């Protein structure tokens, strides 16, 4: 059990006491954070806790404090301040009183970490404007996307507590006053207009006698006490209006969900690609003296607080004990926090490096070979500045190698092998440059003695020199066993044989700190030899063979593919062992195909059939003899010397070829078949598509093959083809844009991006766009090549087609920009390049506004550039008279006057944020607890399963903090499990958290966010909150239009769910329209004669009956019956149900009055067919997830059909005719009570 109990906290000031719920597994610093977050204790920042007179260490678990349990009491004791405590207290109070103002963050961008959940929820709860059901009646399913769905609503100005508060110009204190305890000086201008100087002292804060012209930090004489331990308390004494305004501000903030306000500690906040214009209230730049003082406030005068020895922290963390449960929790929590801190520091440093603000250590080298050190982090460019990859593709190979290295480092970090260390590694793509950030390994720059290799294991200079330090062999052996890497021979330039446990490119380095480091992990899997032999060759002279022009030789197989193939080989091994056993025991267990495979490390591969009785004897197969590994250095110009060595290498090559064939002949066709049949969640955009492919072990270079295989009459595969073609265009454009931006000065980036976007998306509006480069910038950078200015729509199209042909081996036919899909392509390009564009209507064709025309209610949906508020999802009417010459006229404000008509201007590119790839490992502890809980529930042990699920949730929140993508995924999966357990209140709470955390960490329009909104709507509807549920469905549909466009294959389910919601709200005409829309889309996707279509006809017939359309209801039910009969047979239960309904509807159509009475009370009952997940029973699966997995492992009925109605047909008929069907009401489940998790 979790050991949750109530803990009393004694306070030094009113209310003098409070209670909080705690768990014995929590650390004391978690309790501190809980106290700070409470409204009446937020004044405390500098304090310690005591128990029975003894001070408690903040970094121990509560279980380690003696005699702590239910009824225990802690005492909060205020501590004296240090200079650092005073600075952080000042920062905290500024944030609390709403005086922090806006920050210009170099890394996170505009509105980073924004959430739209509160806007949507409040509009439904407060009932402002049109209701969701009214909007649904006017909803146009085929209308273009409106970007309004991506923008937060304008909020009224928050109550102002003080006019200004900042560090005083008198700060820091002189030497003699430091000796007396003075820490810093603060100046405040109250709402009454009084300017007050405050001294921060070790004992607290007090008003001093200083003025702007005279320095006198002694206490000011007054009739009342003008001192306090907390600055918040002191401000209330100084300003008569402060307490009132602060209460009003607190109440206003209290209306918001706390998760929308917490700062992100362990994750990078998502930066939206469309943001309000600079004139919006969200972007208003206020005068704030403290903004320029932030570096001092956060890091101190000597900047010492920000300097960290990253490498030592990483390696010390890995050396922490991990035997006990508490030790593992602490270690994984520290790991998550450390990786997050390093990622943010690396991103900030990379931005400075890219902008030229950091001096190179080797300024005389060419730009690509320059290296940098900033904030104890080593930076280099992901380019072939030293010629290391000259024979493998040069800069292209170097860029790919850095990306593969991060994947390899992440894999090694996940394995967590004791004694093997990796440097912290992050990749940042910014302004066309790829920058690699790494912690500095001790000794990596040390020049060794002549003849001594620079590394201790692996290839030193390519494959010419090979080092073999036997101390590394055992560690590399452990690594190789986990990653299916074969111990194999390699030969140096003198043809001397060396036995290596890893790839020759993977290096081992003995640092000067005595630790063993593994470096260069970009080749942990073999090359994709089938691809390279077909499409790549070493350049001979100037020209490369067009058929073999793939840009680099770093095409390696994904680790997921190797693991998948290993499972196949294990299955073959088990079958072979069973066959041998059956031969020995002929006649006994002849047909037994069940086995439990015991492996070396005690894991079990369960092959037991579900229907097997528990008491049956299960044979055990010893898998310790199973061997599978791949040689990562095959096809790498190795030179075996003997016939035996050549034969061994040939076998290794054959095995690698088998894996390559497995990818193209099994994995890819299977995925396409599953997507065609709707067995897994359909991808929505490029990110979800790449995630799906990577999970299956498919590299993105196979997009062309997937597009070719998907080119058939299936509408679902046509949607897949459309998505893959768009992704190929997007990725090709990204490569072209990066190449053109790579050596540009930062001030020219916006002009370059806008011109390339005009050539890509605005050619129909202007066939000959001209780049709007600032002439002053061009004159200042005379040695820079502004070659992008010569790009034309024709030349860009040809470049994109060439890139698609080279990189994806696909002959692209037709337009590269599909009609009415400009917004989707613009979004994909922006996300991949880190663009933040002004949210306005971009015109892509003459006299036609392509996007943003129709909002959710059919009105114009573009927000004004001046930030005018949206009223319930619709923009203000645009027919009001505007001031002549005003820049705030049309809601669709055009760009400033230019000499030509263009879709994009440099002013539209408001910011560019870094795109980050990092190598943090996932929490094994939390994942194991979740999986154990899921399995227990699946096996029927509900109580134990729920306990384990709560345990896993606690672990997720402790280890990652609440605001993290992994926690969002956990919330989403847990909500689905609780919904399946009929714990609706708990499911809603978890789904709501999943929505907010997904929005803030993945993006307001990410596929995960959309799925979270859809499931939240489903759960709210099940709890009777129809209007709110419909709001979430409408918002998800608008997001889906922006991300994919109209008619996403899985939107059949969404529209069908919305129809059922409208039906439950007794909006029968509206629900009929939605059912018809769902049916229309289903006919296009699944075909008119499909079982899925019959199911929707069945539901539409019910809707027509409720809308007094008896003839239409009979016709639709007859169509459903005919399809069921043809496809499933006359004896199928669905066919019989439809026949019975058809008979009753026909009879009741004669008696109008009776029909109205009967059908108005008729419960809407699901048919036993499947509509690609349609219906209100089950949550939607995540992208690539099967529907069974979305149910937490619960089995669906045969053929994937939904659960049957518990009543038989006779009972239902009796109910229709007015009898009692024995309807039972399920017992209400107790709500799972949990304390809100906290950011660590």
From TrEMBL:
Where is the segment annotated Disordered? 581-617, 858-901, 1216-1240
Q: Gene Ontology terms, cellular component aspect?
A: cytoplasm
Query: Where is there biased composition of kind Basic and acidic residues?
Result: 581-593, 603-617
- Location relative to the cell: Cytoplasm
Is Cytoplasm a UniProt keyword of this protein?
yes
Keywords (alphabetical) are: Cytoplasm, Initiation factor, Protein biosynthesis, RNA-binding, TPR repeat
Molecular-function GO terms, alphabetical: mRNA binding; translation initiation factor activity
Protein biosynthesis found in the keyword field: yes
Which residues belong to any copy of the Clu domain? 288-532
Pfam families referenced in this protein's UniProt entry, alphabetically? CLU (PF13236), CLU_N (PF15044), eIF3_p135 (PF12807), GSKIP_dom (PF05303), TPR_10 (PF13374), TPR_12 (PF13424)
Q: Which domain of life is it from?
A: Eukaryota
Which BP terms in the Gene Ontology apply to this protein? intracellular distribution of mitochondria; mitochondrion organization
Q: Which intervals carry biased composition (Basic residues)?
A: 1225-1240
The UniProt entry, under PANTHER family, shows: CLUSTERED MITOCHONDRIA PROTEIN HOMOLOG (PTHR12601:SF6), EUKARYOTIC TRANSLATION INITIATION FACTOR 3 SUBUNIT EIF-3 (PTHR12601)
Please state which protein family the record places this protein in.
Belongs to the CLU family.
What function is annotated for this protein? mRNA-binding protein involved in proper cytoplasmic distribution of mitochondria.
Q: How does this polypeptide assemble, per the annotation? A: May associate with the eukaryotic translation initiation factor 3 (eIF-3) complex.
* Name of the protein this chain belongs to: Clustered mitochondria protein homolog
Q: What is the lineage of its organism?
A: Eukaryota, Fungi, Dikarya, Ascomycota, Pezizomycotina
